[in-house]
């Protein structure tokens, strides 16, 4: 390898190290910012999730439905697949922090998550379902 090739190689290695350092600092910084996630924004995002019925139910229907509709369906039928899906979404969104999502529908209550104690942030909303009626959702985030 000539002198020019060696200089180009070392320059490329240094450039890659600088980029890797910048990425690692950025990733670490955004993980910390994730802790301050606004509970109302997270609950609003959760209510706007659309999934195919056939993905989360036993129905052979590929039409799209909002997650609150499927959570109400799960509370009525006992099907845990939509509940598991909501739990997976919240596990990822909360970055390992504790949370509790409380659902109230037709006189029944269900809790998803494992937070206890005093929540650091919380919010609630009433969601009108496409089938009529409403689902009450309350999200508490713990530090």
Model description:
Helices cover 48% and strands 24% of the residues. The protein is an alpha+beta fold and 143 residues long. The strands form 2 sheets. Strands 4-3-6-5 form a 4-stranded antiparallel β-sheet. The chain has a two-stranded antiparallel sheet with strand order 1-2. β5 and β6 (134-141) form a beta hairpin. The chain is elongated, with a radius of gyration of 22 Å.
Chart the SSEs and their pairings.
Elements: H1 3-34, H2 39-47, E1 50-52, H3 53-56, E2 64-66, H4 67-77, H5 81-93, E3 99-105, E4 108-113, E5 121-128, E6 134-141
Antiparallel strand pairs: 1-2, 3-4, 3-6, 5-6
How does the helix and strand content classify structurally? Answer: alpha+beta
Helical fraction equals: 40-55%
CATH A-level architecture of the largest domain: 2-Layer Sandwich
What is the chain-wise order of helices and strands? Answer: HHEHEHHEEEE
Short description:
The protein has 143 residues and is α+β, with helices and mostly antiparallel strands. The protein has helices spanning 3-34, 39-47, 53-56, 67-77, 81-93, and strands spanning 50-52, 64-66, 99-105, 108-113, 121-128, 134-141.
Task: Pick out its properties.
143 residues, alpha+beta, Ribosomal protein S3 C-terminal domain, 2 domains, two-stranded antiparallel ribbon, elongated
